[in-house]
Specification:
Order of helices and strands of chain A: HEHHHEEHEHEHEHEEEEEEEEEEEEEE
Number of domains of chain B: 2
Radius of gyration of chain A: 24 Å
Number of helices of chain A: 8
Structural class of chain A: alpha+beta
CATH class of the largest domain in chain B: Alpha Beta
CATH architecture of the largest domain in chain B: 3-Layer(aba) Sandwich
CATH architecture of the largest domain in chain A: 3-Layer(aba) Sandwich
Shape of chain B: globular
Structural class of chain B: alpha/beta
Order of helices and strands of chain B: HEHEHEHHEEEHEEEEHH
Oligomer: heterodimer
Chain lengths: 423, 316
């Protein structure tokens, strides 16, 4: 085994989201990360060189690398969530690149839903703005475990330490109002590469790590919940062949907790109990399984289990109920209807619900609660109550992103219209 | 082919320390989840199989997803008639070995029925024509979800593709009106006549696919390894000779040691001069390569938005 293949085969995967406005230099920063980590290939580079020339730019515009669709290239803005990939010898990265305009809260929420880390850009000339508050709020609402604030365009403020510190103070004041566990700050210039991959020669006063160093080393091993055993059943496997005549296995992805053969378990919603007989992947039997593994489980007893049921630890059962209190982000141009009925997807469960009340809305620019407005339009976030057609078994989103999240679907258009986080 | 590689140490690398999967295991878990979700949410799914490494890995993951039961949906190959012989041979052997069912539909039939007109001259390709054959086949079998091996890292229009990608009754993709995809909640609801394209390998890169093939010892066609072949050079790209490949003036067939980085039609698959005999060699080659795999594809070179345009019309 060569060192090359050996190292490459054992990397961690880090998913992060980037938020920022067109002018924050977000696309330039991503271009810089891809470029400096050599994830940009020659043919792509030649293509953007040609495009930069056509647009009359003097230097190669790294931002062009991340503009995907024709409409975006024509309008010069990023409309949708785009995913980018790069790797260093330590980690493989997936970037959910989301536009930062106020009207794109929906995209930011989407990108944030699967991220381990949020990278928020702040323009050193402007400091903490409304949109910074918005980005930080969404990161905290979606429970992204790590937040990295990049103070960008340090080259335009003479690499001033004081400006960097002021922005840090401003941001910390804001973070105090939010529920954010881990915040780091890095002063950078995406355009010139200062503190992105290589240390800046212009900011000797900054002794902290570079952005790339943080991306490569932040501890993500504890981002999943390893204490509550939750296994939503996705598919029942019954081979019905001669060899596996009576075989009945439950396929799914472990949402949280650590499972071992022999563990006493309970099945929701029936409440029947059994023990885990085997945990398998293809022809391998596993001694232990944990999130986010996709496995096949068999139980000691013959219990009737189908898709939508959940196998849980016998002692720490999830909450159950048909009246759910949640934070809801509205994703559709058609406003939410109070009293309206929607399809609901939660873990592997499909059901329907009715929105019974809007407790309050959040002004995402000031973080104030608005109590007298019962409507919810595109990109707005509110605390709402819903009633479901049958009980959900769930955990608070705070402690479990996978059993605490749900989406609402419009019954007429089938569009995904709401993203919910159970309180 | 890859007999000389020693795979033994890999079995120890299944898991990283603590409760942490390595990136390949995490991608594998995600793809298996998506494939199972397709089987659960749709009435009549199909797995689009091209004989290339991505669809081979996708099929391998599907077998893992339902083991010990059989994969609960058929495969389908849209045969352009311009395939490498080795691809078809490999396809038939794989089906025999796994007991899977592979439907084949031919672009030639679509041409014979007068539904499309074939391009002529040097550079003629059936790449665009196969969209019509594909959409016809989806309608013929009433497939409501077609899984493809497309990856977001391949091309800029694919970077915004969803795992579950909605297609209207004409099979068209509307990139500006995609459903948001949050957490691992996939919305496969649709109206009559509409269908979904699903891309279980969305988050994989070319390197991930090769590493996974290496780690799992997945069998792949010989074309991916270096071999001697008669080729000619067109605009800096090595293409294979074939009866239907018309040579331009000045293009001279020569024998070179080459391999495929992607496998498509003979008409548009650029071959790489290579000495890679083993999977390890290939991984090393990919690690130092400075062009994207699609860079060698003639179909993408037609314009800056070639892929986006084809995808909107219902391409793979």
């Amino acid at each position: 085994m060569s060192d090359l293949t050996d190292g490459y085969l054992n990397m961690q995967l880090l998913r992060f989201t980037t938020a920022g406005s067109v002018d924050d230099g977000k696309s330039t920063l991503i271009g810089r990360l891809l470029y400096d980590s050599k994830a940009i290939f020659e043919d792509q580079l030649e293509a953007i060189e040609r495009a930069s020339e056509r647009a009359g730019a003097e230097e190669v515009n790294l931002a062009l690398l991340t503009d995907g669709l024709r409409a975006e290239r024509e309008q010069g803005i990023t409309i949708d969530v785009a995913y980018r990939y790069f790797a260093t010898p330590k980690r493989k990265f997936i970037i959910a690149d989301t536009p930062g305009h106020v009207q794109y809260t929906r995209n930011m929420v989407t990108g944030a839903s699967t991220a381990n880390m949020a990278v928020i850009l702040v323009d050193a000339r402007h400091g903490v703005l409304e949109q910074t508050i918005r980005h930080a709020y969404i990161a905290s609402l979606l429970r992204i475990p790590h937040l990295l604030v990049c103070v960008n365009k340090m080259d335009l403020v003479d690499y001033s330490e004081k400006i960097f510190e002021d922005i840090q103070t401003q941001f910390n004041k804001l973070a105090g109002k939010l529920d954010i566990q881990d915040v780091r700050f890095v002063p950078i210039s995406a355009k010139y590469g200062d503190n992105v991959v290589d240390r800046s020669v212009h900011m000797p006063w900054y002794e902290g790590p570079t952005l790339m160093y943080l991306l490569e080393t932040i501890h993500i091993g504890s981002d999943y919940n390893h204490t509550l055993q939750r296994f939503p059943v996705q598919y029942v496997i019954r081979p019905q062949s001669d060899k596996y005549h009576d075989f009945r296995g439950y396929a799914g992805r472990i949402a949280s907790g650590v499972f071992k053969p022999g563990d006493p378990v309970k099945v929701m919603p029936s409440g029947l109990t059994s023990r885990i007989k085997t945990i398998e992947i293809m022809d391998k039997k596993l001694d232990i399984a944990y999130p986010p593994q996709s496995v096949l489980m068999t139980l000691e007893d013959d219990i009737d289990i189908s898709r939508g049921d959940m196998i849980v630890g016998e002692n720490k059962a999830p909450q159950t109920g048909d009246k759910i209190d949640l934070m809801l982000c509205w994703l559709s141009e058609t406003p939410m209807r109070l009293g309206g009925k929607y399809y609901l997807k939660h873990t592997t469960n499909d059901l329907r619900c009715m929105v019974t009340d809007v407790a309050y809305k959040i002004d995402i620019n000031t973080l104030d609660n608005i109590y007298d407005d019962k409507g919810l339009s595109l990109n707005e976030i509110a605390r709402v109550h819903i009633k479901t057609t049958k009980p959900l078994y769930y955990d608070s989103y705070r402690i479990n992103r996978f059993t605490g999240s749900l989406i609402l679907i419009d019954e007429a258009t089938n569009n995904t219209v709401g993203a919910g986080m159970i309180i | 082919m890859a007999e000389s590689v020693n795979f033994a140490p890999l079995h120890k690398q299944m898991l990283m320390n603590g409760y942490q999967l390595n990136h390949l295991r995490e991608l594998e878990a995600e793809s298996i989840y998506v494939i199972r979700e397709v089987a659960a949410q749709f009435e009549k799914p199909v797995l689009l199989f091209s004989g290339g490494k991505d669809s081979i890995v996708m099929f391998y993951l599907a077998r893992k997803a339902f083991w010990p039961a059989r994969v609960p949906f058929p495969l389908m190959h849209i045969d352009t008639g311009h395939n490498f012989a080795e691809t078809l041979e490999f396809r038939d052997q794989l089906m025999e070995k796994t007991g899977a069912k592979c439907i084949v539909r031919y672009v030639q039939d679509t041409i014979d029925e007068g539904k499309v007109v074939e391009e002529t001259g040097p550079g003629a390709s059936r790449n665009i024509l196969q969209t019509v054959t594909l959409l016809d086949a989806i309608e013929e079998f009433k497939f409501d979800a077609a899984m493809g091996g497309g990856r977001r890292d391949e091309e800029k229009a694919r970077a915004k593709e969803r795992f579950f990608s909605h297609r209207d009754v004409f099979g068209q993709w509307d990139p500006k009106n995609q459903r948001p995809e949050l957490w691992n909640l996939f919305n496969g609801r649709k109206k009559m006549g509409e269908h979904f394209r699903v891309f279980p390998l969305s988050n994989w890169t070319e390197m991930d696919v090769w590493q996974y093939i290496f780690m799992e010892n997945v069998e792949i066609p010989k074309l991916y390894f270096t071999h001697e072949r008669e080729v000619f050079n067109r605009d800096g790209v090595w293409l294979a000779t074939a009866p239907f490949m018309e040579l331009k003036k000045g293009e001279v067939p020569v024998v070179k040691k080459v391999r495929c980085r992607t496998i498509g039609d003979i008409t548009n698959t650029g071959l790489t001069l290579s000495e890679a005999h083993t999977l390890e060699d290939i991984i090393r080659e990919v690690a130092i390569t400075r062009t994207t795999e699609r860079g060698a594809r003639f179909d993408d070179k037609r314009s800056d938005t070639a892929m986006e345009d084809r995808k909107k019309e219902g391409y793979f």
